[in-house]
Structure formats: C-alpha cells, structure tokens
Amino acid sequence: MKLTKHVPQEVVQQIAEYFSILSEPMRLRILNLLRDGEKCVQDLVDATETSQANVSKHLKVMLQAGILSRRSEGTSAYYSVEDEFIFELCNSVCDRLASRIEQQASYFRAFTIAGKH
Length: 117
Description:
- By secondary structure, the chain is mainly alpha-helical.
- It is built from 5 helices and 3 strands, in the order ααβααββα.
- About 65% of the residues lie in helices and about 10% in strands.
C-alpha cells in the first residue's frame, strides 16, 4: 500500500475503516466461525456465548463493510463471508505475530542458557 501526501482524506478514511473491522475481538471470533461456511445468527450466538444483540451488532458492521453477505430463510438470518481477502489479511497478521513471538522466545531461551552456571 503506497500512501503519499496527495491521497485524498476520504481514501485514507476508508482504509482506516476497513482495518477497524478487525480491531474488535468479537468480530475476529465471528469471522473465524464463518471460515467453514455459512452460519445462522443463533449458531453464532451459541458459539460465542454472548447475546444475540451483541452478535447482531457486529454482523451488521461487517455486512455494511461488504465483508459478509446475508440471506434470510423463514425467520432466520444466515451470514457468510463475502470478501475472502479478509482471511488472507488475518493470516498475514497471525504469521507476523507468530514470528515475533518465536523470536522473543529464542531471546528468553538464550538468556536462560547464558544465565545458568
């Protein structure tokens, strides 16, 4: 992503809003549950052990951002991931964090070994 001082504020705002979708732990939990396919709201409520209002609030945000799609069947609403790129983004972040943690662990091991007599 190349940003220059000539990028309109609206563009920068949209980029920040896209990233903000992933800043909420409950949204990440819901996305992980939807990784295997479509789920109804009640399945998501049961799996997250939170209220339907809370799940619905997060689903609405991701739906409006174009990350999820929704379909109705009778009185139930079903959600699925519309923008598969979100998983690539999450995987990249997780890989980066895992590398940092592994590096930190090696520092601790080296310190511990160096400290033993």
